[in-house]
Design goal:
- With 271 residues, the chain is α+β, with helices and mostly antiparallel strands.
- 38% of the residues lie in helices and 26% in strands.
- It has 7 helices and 13 strands.
- The strands form 3 sheets. An 8-stranded antiparallel barrel has the order 6-7-8-9-10-11-12-13.
- Strand 9 and strand 10 form a beta hairpin.
- The chain is globular.
């Protein structure tokens, strides 16, 4: 069964890439649509996405327009990914990540900054790519090639995203082999719980000052830093986003106009 699945996926990959400008691989829109449909079918759902190649899209994005769920990608960006990663699976991994944003409901309120949402989509990408026949290195290929070591405002740093993909891929492997789910490990030294407005994810800070994310089926993934400033309170940093935590444990950040906005709370962690 696995061999047959790999053969079917190989046929898809053969259509996925063709010679483009300056011999760079390019992603054909029809092949991208077929890839998205296969990703969704591996989730046991009926595909109902619009897939578009768009030079106006910087990388790849999932959004809702006119009640349609859209996945758009920049062909040149995908060509760069394919060329850098040297793996056709890299583009499928990116498309799977965008599919997850729709399936997990993140496109309902796309403006919010939610690092945990990005990691959840990375876990989904790893999970579904295993089912499609990708080896772990192939599932990791896109992030390994182009991931930002320091992260960006929208996306956690490379090491956190790679770990999330690995968790998803390994969870699918354990399911296929009839093994029980990996037991979630509650890291030693958790000190604080952090929650944010309109963010269903929960974050923690440990005794080393690391900010971590994990859900009930994943091990902790560190991606930010909490610093104790004594009487001045705490500062919280992830990617290039900075927050201040006052004496009442309220979490603040500055708006685009420089006004302070309360965006969350921090509490002492209790087992």
């Amino acid at each position: 069964m696995i061999a047959a699945m790999r053969i079917g996926t190989s046929l898809l990959l053969a259509l996925f890439v063709h010679a483009g400008v300056a011999q760079q691989p390019a992603l054909d829109e029809a092949a991208a649509r077929e890839a998205v449909y296969r990703i969704v079918r591996h989730s046991g759902l009926v595909p109902n996405f619009v897939v578009r190649a768009s030079s106006e899209t910087r990388t790849a994005i999932a959004y809702v327009k006119d009640k349609q769920r859209v996945i758009a990608y920049n062909p040149q960006f995908m060509a760069t990914v394919l060329d850098s990663a040297r793996s056709d699976w890299s583009a499928i991994s990116i498309l799977a990540h965008e599919v997850a944003h729709h399936l997990l409901g993140h496109t309902i309120d796309p403006a919010s900054l939610r690092p945990g949402d990005e990691l959840a989509c990375d876990r989904y990408s790893g999970f579904v790519l295993f089912g499609m026949g990708a080896a772990l290195a192939e599932a990791l290929s896109a992030q390994s090639a182009i991931g930002d070591p320091h992260g960006t405002r929208r996306h956690p740093p490379k090491h956190a995203r790679l770990e999330a993909i690995r968790h998803g891929w390994d969870e699918a492997r354990r399911l296929r082999e009839g093994l029980p789910p990996e037991s979630p490990r509650d890291p030693d030294g958790l000190q604080y719980v952090l929650s944010f407005v309109d963010d269903a994810n929960t974050y923690y800070a440990d005794s080393l000052g690391r900010v971590v994310w994990f859900d009930q089926s994943a091990c902790a993934i560190p991606f930010g830093e909490l610093r104790d400033g004594g009487k001045a309170g705490f500062t919280l940093q992830w990617m290039d986003e900075a927050f201040v935590i006052d004496g009442r444990m309220a979490i603040w950040r500055k708006s685009a106009h420089g006004m302070p906005l309360q965006v969350g709370r921090m509490e002492r962690y209790a087992r």
